[in-house]
Specification:
Layout lengths: L4 E2 L1 H14 L4 H8 L3 H9 L6 H11 L3 H5 L3 E2 L1 H13 L4 H22 L2
Antiparallel strand pairs: 1-2
């Protein structure tokens, strides 16, 4: 899965949404999967990323599939970055975009010189 990452915050939000949709508290879910409420809280906040088995337990007790959980949680970091850059440039004039591109190229040269690449 080179170049791909799983965003633990998105995954955690989905776990929370699934849990809430089933009317369960963090404590109740924790009991069902044999974990602590604190652990479930960390998963939902994206502070901790569980194992595949943990997520399988979660979706199983909540009546969902791993596909429901993961959805578009896998993001290509380059695509995400390019999207953010594009959004930042939408309000710029043509001259501003050209200036930004020149500055970017100069910064890239400096970074590569500094890092020896």
């Amino acid at each position: 899965m080179d170049g791909m990452k799983l965003d633990s915050r998105i995954l955690g939000n989905r776990v929370a949404d699934m849990r809430i949709s089933r009317g369960l508290t963090q404590f109740q879910l924790a009991e069902l999967i044999g974990r602590s409420r604190v652990y479930v809280g960390y998963l939902e906040q994206g502070k901790r990323c569980g194992t595949l088995l943990t997520y399988m337990d979660i979706v199983s007790v909540l009546g969902y599939s791993l596909n429901d959980l993961v959805g578009s949680g896998f993001q290509d970091p380059d695509t995400e970055l390019l999207s953010e850059l594009g959004a930042a440039l939408t309000d710029c004039s043509g001259d501003e975009k050209e200036s930004i591109l020149r500055i970017f190229r100069e910064m890239l040269k400096m970074i590569r010189m500094f890092h020896g690449s």
